[in-house]
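Input sequence (438 aa), recorded before submission:
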Amino acid sequence: MNAAAQAARCFFAGCRGNVVNLQGGEAGYMIFFRIIFWILCSAMFLTACRPDGKKTDNGAFREATHSDGQSSAYDLADIQESGELIVATLSGPDTYYDYQGVPMGLQYAYAAAFAQEEGVRVRMEIAHDTLELFDLLRKGEADIIALPLPPSYIRRHGGLSAGVQDTARHFSWAVRAGTVELAAALDKWFEKGARAAVQFNEKERDKNSMKVRRTVRAPYISREKGVISSYDRHFQAAAKKLGWDWHLIAAQCYQESGFDPSAVSGAGARGLMQIMPGTAQSLGVPVEHLFYPDKNIAAAAAYLQKLKTDFQDIKDPEERIKFVLGAYNGGPGHIRDAMALARKYHRRPDRWDDVSAFVRRLSEPKYYRDPVVKYGYMIGRETAGYVSSVMDRWRFYGKSHMAVRERSNRKRGRYQRPEGEVKIYRPGDPELSGMPEN
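Predicted structure, token format:
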């Protein structure tokens, strides 16, 4: 007997035990309130158990228990009620990856389109291999495997073929066995011909994501006077807060937008420093402010300061600048992945030259599916090139040692003359003329 049935039995037993003649008097009122108490307690208990028999857990093995006492897999109606479709896949350029905070990849696009049709949001879970994918499915930590797989392989691992199909190879997505409503909805959505529209939209988005609509200004207003742009005072204010050379921020701005305050990228980045709307919101900056030069540069400085703090384990200040720039462009998670790979392959994780080699390799399956990698595929050549370009332009603008002043913040100890007879040379001493120049 389940808890709900026990509560009901107790309720009716309590009622039978308290049926009396309520013709006034204190005893009658006491019995009346006792019955009301039983009703309220039973109602609260039954509500906690949910009359439809469904558990309200957060995805640990999700199943629904129906009125006939039979259990079935967490199906489409449950997903719609929760408002969230959990999709598992492998990281890759054709499946799913994060590009400057924007989810990309064809399999992700299919999943997002299906979720939109069902009126739910989509959440992605990334696995390192197909065994991990089916483990997520079995545990109820994913509703769909968004990766075309052989039907025989799906059956062998207790799944059900459904949804997006690779007709040339007869591969398909997978759902948990028993989720017949979800499987039917996926098949119906796929048969409606939705795939062609998704493919077209994703190709266009992929093609335009790295493009920035901008009007590039000259790299200098006046080189003789040291005036780089109309926004130099904003760069100087930002640099003062960061402890950086303002020429470095100017160099970064030119790389981002070419000094165009109205620049917009295909991924949605905006303004002079190409701030993503999600980043702006996390910093408390209204998205509509991103086209104001002063607010955009101030937001970039706040984000750079956060990244600078995040990478405090890079002790050398100038090396840290390169890691911060890489994280600004490619995301801190991807840079940490490249550092983990550098460590694994016995290279220095605190030297950008070593780490940038693995940033580039994060576009290769051998590396972005390595167990030490958490954030998967990235377009590594873009981020590595970005850091190189900003550093080169910084030198072109006149790199200052202000950016690395952290090195000289240590207190200088008082010089102590060494003990014993030590020869001290001074300029003009004849002995110096015979010494080799270093």
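Checked by second reader. Residues 402 and 409 are 12 Å apart (CA to CA).
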